[in-house]
Structures are given as structure tokens and as C-alpha cells.
Hints:
Elements lengths: L1 E8 L10 E4 L21 H8 L4 H19 L3 E7 L5 H15 L3 E6 L9 H4 L9 E10 L4 E7 L8 E2 L2 E3 L6 H13 L9 E6 L9 E10 L12 E8 L10 H10 L1 H5 L5 E3 L5 E4 L6
Parallel strand pairs: 1-3, 1-4, 2-3, 5-10
Antiparallel strand pairs: 5-8, 6-7, 6-11, 9-10, 12-13
Helix pairs in contact: 1-3, 2-3
Amino acid sequence: MTIHIVSFGYGHDQAPTADLTLDLRALLRNPFHDAQLKHRTGLDPEVYDHVKDTPGAERLAFNTVTTALGLAEDTRADVTIAWGCTGGRHRSVGLARLSHELLLGAGHKVTIEHRDVDKDLLPAGVHNRTEPEPETIRYTADVVAMTPGGDVLLIERGWAPHEGAWALPGGHVDRGETALQAAVRELEEETGVRVPASDLREIGVFDRPDRDPRGRYVTAAYLAIVPADTQITAGDDARTARWWPAANLPPLAFDHADILDLVATSTTEVANSNDMLMVDLSGKRGGPLSGDIG
């Protein structure tokens, strides 16, 4: 049985397939931050000694080698150890060499490969362990569909988060879409109601960091005024869909109550707008809104 050892950098490519993968990005002293060692690699004696002499390095290598040998003995199969750091030039190379020497010294069959040792240095910011990971922000669109009498169209969510809760129709903005296009599409997919994009009015952008338990979601909300007899059919992510009186709404998922609150405070302005028009399901415009909306 042979122990295979590979060093690599997370900043260049995904981790190689291995039985034991050790992530050194937050461990050990990083020679990248030493001006005299930065442009050398773990193949150079001064860098190797710098990494090996870091408190805890030798114990980590010894314990990893011991685990790999035990795994090989139990499974009767070859075992691969992968040592990873940011750029694959310093710490991972040093620990790979150290574990290689331990195995050779004990008479075991071992191979070693340094996948990224010859790659270019990565930018300094990548090596700064105090720099937070970039935040992933997802973009969604939600629609407040209302009748002139003040009924609000809600869906019962069929999926987590907030499965079974009531919410506004909406969803992710797909690649190549605008938020307005996504609002039109999501409203039709989840409720069967088709409204031309020209008849949607933007309510606002809602970006409170904790508004969605899945992470950072920013949504653009739109208002659509539709006839009172508009037929609805639940579909896509919606378990059911129904009209609710604005004065008697159920508890809502996410921050959708805040979106409706903003609509309520601006109802007078919307109702008095000369360019806000009702639409029917055929996509044709109706007349100007009456002054008693809401």
C-alpha cells in the first residue's frame, strides 16, 4: 500500500480528490507575508524551515501521517493526503514535504506531488486572512397584486424557507432578466395572472441583511392593480393562491408585511396617479384607477 501526498492552492483550482484533505489557509505562519520568503517556495530550505518550525506544524504532520497509515492498514488500499493553502507554494508544500519525510523515515511507500508550486503568486488580498469572504447577494422580484377594492393576492409557499406560510408572488431574477421581467414571469408562473411589464409600478428595493434566512437577498417589489374578477391558478413554487382582504391578512413570510405597509402608506398617491392603469388578463389596458383603492 502506498501513501500519496499532494500539495495544492485553493486559489488556483478546487482541491484534488483525496482521502484526507488538510486546509492550512488559517493555520501556520504564512511565508507570503515575509518579504524575504514571499517569492520562494516550500522547496527552498529557508521556507521549509519557516513552515516546519511553526508551533503545531510537526504535530499536525505526525498525526496526519498516523491517521493515513491506520486508514491504509484498515482498508488495505492506497491513501491520498492533500495539503492545501492559499497559493500552493509555501505552507502546503512544507507540510507535504514534512509528512513525506516522516513516511520515508519509517520505511513506508510514499509518493509526493506539488500541484501548484510553480504557479504565479496570488494577489496580496487573497492571502489576508483578516479580509472577510466576499458576500454573495441574490436578486429577486416580488409583486403586490391588488384589486381596486383592496384585496391582495398571496401564495402559500410550497418550499422552505417558510414552507406553508403566506407570501407575495415572486422569485429569483434569472440570468439575462431585469427585475421587472422577473416580476412579470413569477406572477404568471405562481398565480396564472399575466400583467404587462408596462403596467407594473416599482414600490421599492428591500435589502435588509436579515430579511431571508438563506443569506443575503435583495428584492425589487412591484405593484400591479388587476380587475376584481381576475382568475388565479396556483403553480410553480406556490402550493395555493388566494385573494385576501388587505385589512385581514395572515402572517407573512420574509419582510413582505413591510412591503405591503409601504404600499398602504402610498395608496393615496397611487390612487391619484393619472398614469396608473388597470389591466385584464389579455394584457389590455383599462381605465384610470378610481380614487377609492384600498
